[in-house]
Amino acid sequence: MQNPKNFIIKYNRITAPLLAVAFSTLALFAAIYVYEAFLFLIPVIVFFSFHFTKLYRLRTRILGGLVIFIIVAMISAGISTSVIYTTDPVVTDHYTNLSVQTQVTPYAGNYSSYNFTMKVMDRVQLNPDHVTLDINTTGFQKNVSAAEMSHYTNASGDQVFYYVYTNPPAGIYSYNFTFQNQTGATLYTGFGTGSGPDTLSSVSTFKELFIVTVINDVIIFEIILVAGIFIARSFSRSARNRIRPPQRPKQPDIVDQNNNQ
């Protein structure tokens, strides 16, 4: 029976990409659901997948790494599209004297209108004249003034501000609510308040996210991989030069010795 490691090395043109894609997908899930910095493990995983399977040809590693990164970008876009179309997130932020919940409904899909809502809890009443909303997508921003916002107090005593945006341009949006207290000092600027809505179809969302991933991540990953490959090659050559045995001095030819006698 063939040793598994020998099999992996023998067929490294197949096993190296498979290992790289499999472990990169695990790092991708960790980046999405645990901590975003895990994303930068992907070029490291690809590098060591090539190294473990002894796939050393420079051109193969550079081009193969690029192909693997593109495949991982497609997987990332697919996961993100699925998350967008199966969630309707409510974001909660806590401050010294109040908590705020923000939400946009519907969150994904092509609809005629979208409701942006901010609920101020802990029975804190804000000045409606100082509540604004910024809605952003690539190449477009809508600023909603306090006069355009609506508000009411619900049965629980929470103050609710909302704005209905009709027929927005197609895109993947994010938004920020900003409000101030009675004296005009800003209490909350909505950093990371919420994403959405996504007004594109699922196919268009996948394409958009894939392009963004290629531009923002794949190029950086390829640069990291190429840099790692050349650094490793440099260390390898230095190590070979250090362990190479010293060459013996050339012995004079016997004929030359006899002629000199």
TrEMBL record:
Region called Disordered, residue ranges: 242-261
Highest taxon listed in the record's lineage: Archaea
Annotated transmembrane regions: 20-50, 62-85, 209-232
Name this polypeptide is given: Uncharacterized protein
This protein's UniProt keywords: Membrane, Transmembrane, Transmembrane helix
